[in-house]
Amino acid sequence: MRKINQLLKRYELKPHRYEKNGKVTYIDTNEGRFVIKDNKHKDDIYNYLDSRSFDYYPKMLNDINDDYEIREYVEEIDIPREQKVIDLIDLTALLHNKTTHYKEVDIADYKQIYEDINNNIAYLNSYYSDLITLIETKVYMSPSEYLLARNISKIFAALAFSKKEIEEWYELIKDKKKKRYVVLHNNLKLDHFLENKNSYLINWDKSKIDIPIFDLYKLYRNHCLDFDFEEILKRYENSYPLAEDERKLFFILITLPDIIKFDDTEYNMTKKISKEIDKLYKTEILLTPYCFNKESSN
User: Fold this and answer.
1) What ranges make up the beta strands (E) of 15-153?
2) φ and ψ at 54, to 5 degrees?
3) Which CATH superfamily is domain 2-73 in?
4) Class of domain 84-297
5) What is the mean pLDDT of each run of 10 residues along the chain (298 residues)?
């Protein structure tokens, strides 16, 4: 706290109220309310975003080299969540448009993605085969075990789809010369998006430069059961169309099931399995038009 107070003094801010909220601290001062948190961006990501005319984040009051960020506090207006996620995907598409650049492809990078996903598919196949074999030996299944057993075919179908698609993806990219990169927020969720007169993305701690689909993947992971992602994806691609190999890799990643470990109460396990199964069904519905169009064109 001493370092924070010294920093506030340097900028002639007199605090009179502190409010801790997770990793951030809200401070009411003689100049209004500010947000303070550890500074993890001494690599100057914000200056780079500014150079690309993307300034949709709360402004920083102090120097980029300080140990803490002092940022303006944005009073969020109340809007429907369905509208908020649309505004979020619009801003994400703008971020990717503003920061797009291309690099020569290192085939080793693609090969690493290919091998990592293939290894993950093999591990998940083995894990769920062993798990369902164990469950089926029981005379009486628990409700959560029965729920998983009833839907295990959906998990194996998702893995089979992912295996087929990763082979097709590798054929698509093996002769590719350039790869598209963007700045990724890399932690997209509604909690990290604020709206007032302008829109703001907050919490850039995990930001990095990589291929654009990883922002879509994180948003899907966080909210796939909350919204109609067919419309969200269409909205994004209206502003920032994905290449065929990018879209295919995105579909592969969202199709892969999570590992379900029986390490909680029966009630929580039933909820966890139900959520995973719902996610698989939701993903299948999202991908059905894509798969149908692909089969029709063959």
Assistant:
1) 15-21, 24-29, 32-38, 68-72, 101-104
2) -120, 105
3) Phosphorylase Kinase; domain 1 (3.30.200.20)
4) alpha beta
5) 80 87 87 86 78 92 80 90 97 98 87 95 98 95 96 97 96 88 96 93 92 97 95 97 96 97 96 96 92 59
